[in-house]
Amino acid sequence: MSVSSRSRRIFEGWSANLFLLLLGITQQVALIPIFLHFWSGETLAAWLVLYAAANLVLVADAGLQIRAINRFFSFKASVDCDGRTAGYYGAMLRVYISLTGLLIVTVLAGTYFFRPSRLLGFEAISHFDALFAVMTVGALLTLPASLTAGLYRSRNLYGALGWLQCGAMLAAQLGEVIAIVTTGSLLAVAIAYVALQVLVQSYLVFIDAYRRFPFLRRARARWQSWRWTAGQFRRAFPYALANSTELALQNLPVLLVSAFVFDRLVVAQWGLTRVVAGLLRALCVQATLPLAAELGHDYAVGAGERLPRLYARGSIFVTLLASVIASGLLSFWPDFFALWTHDAISYDPALTMTLLIGTALAAPSILAVGFANYSNRGELLARTKGLQLAVFLALSVMLTWQIGPLGAAIAIVASEMLVQFGLLAVVVISDTLQRPIRHIAFLGVLIVVVMLCGWALGLIVRAIAPGTGLIRFLVECALWLGCIALVASPLANSNLRKRLLDATPV
């Protein structure tokens, strides 16, 4: 594998993931003013809760995707790589389809008997139970695409996968805008969102995968035994626990705040504030996906020299990226929040700072989690992510009940710093690098220096920027980005970049 081909694949993956992130910003940021134009704050809160519930049901993957990725990687060392991949893919696709059908029946029955509108406090929203069923069932119908996505990542086609996911997201967003402008109905928006997502993901599973991998058609269509199927779930359990924790930290706090806090505007405030931390985290996750896939390949084939070097440089890149973005958001998010919500929802500075600073501090652990998933470290993931989930649930229930959304934010940050970084990332870094303590110390200094300098620069820019309203906000952003580009301009020199990379602790 040449360095140029690896770099090309990584940059292709980053370009697709960057566009996917921009679409995520459109979904969670740009569409909010449109929604507020047609809906009340309570209706917006209902949509945010439904959106979180749809994302949360993806824990039903039960870790099977990561299990499949590790199996696909292991087949690369076998004689009949394509044949074994095709056989395993065909068997697992039937498992996914059966699991999806069973879960849909369960969700529909649960919605009928337990009424989410009553449990989540949205009885005033008409057809909320039907909306809940539409969003969750739609999310479940995309579940088989997780297996196909795992195959693409193991075959270094994460760039193509990213662009297909971009197409699904873009189609869904266009459908949302058309639905709300023409009908103003929350139900119509939900149907448009899930229908177009399901359509594109079905194309990925049933058409595109067989076009890119013709050997999949050669797999014999036969059902595996119940014992074999149970074995897949048993071996996937550590990854299920890890991924369930990730999804819970992203979406469960929205449901907890909705259940514990009676003021629906506070629920909307929490949902909107979670957006900024969620986007920062999503940016880090998308940046690590191509890196984790390459690291998983090196681990599978035993490339002992390249792996530490790529991990160290990738860790520094993700940390630097998170620190720079967090410093800019800390500076300008208050102005944007006021413009974004038209002052209909109040801004909470303590909540925002807790989430942003905590996310930036935990950024190095995101690559550690991705590499642990792709290097068959199921036992480590099960221990650490299970402990993180327990810490988060205990703290969130106690603190959210007492101090509201800020308590949920503290629970998220504490669980990530104490467990995900303090245990999982430290173990992975120690196993991968030769000088782990120096590397962790370097990352800590990098976060503090970059975040404080970027934040201070933002405060200076806010003090001197002219104008008011949207014009002032755009001028602030342009001045800050210009200063950051000026500071980073020496990195355009390839010799300087090489010297800096060689000096980083590995």
Supply the key terms.
mainly alpha
Short description:
With 506 residues, the protein is an all-alpha fold. Helix content is 84%, strand content 0%.
Describe this structure in words.
The protein folds into 2 domains: 224 residues; 270 residues, no CATH class. The chain contains 19 helices and no strands. The mean pLDDT is 84. By secondary structure, the protein is mainly α. Helices cover 84% and strands 0% of the residues. The protein is globular and about 65 Å long. Helix 7 packs across helix 9 and helix 10 packs antiparallel against helix 16.
Q: On the 0-100 scale, what is the average pLDDT? A: 84
Tell me, briefly, the overall form: globular
Number of helices: 19
Tally of domains: 2
Output the structural class: mainly alpha
Give the low-pLDDT segments.
Answer: none
Order of helices and strands: HHHHHHHHHHHHHHHHHHH
Strand proportion, as a percent range, falls in under 5%
Helix content: over 70%
Output the radius of gyration.
23 Å
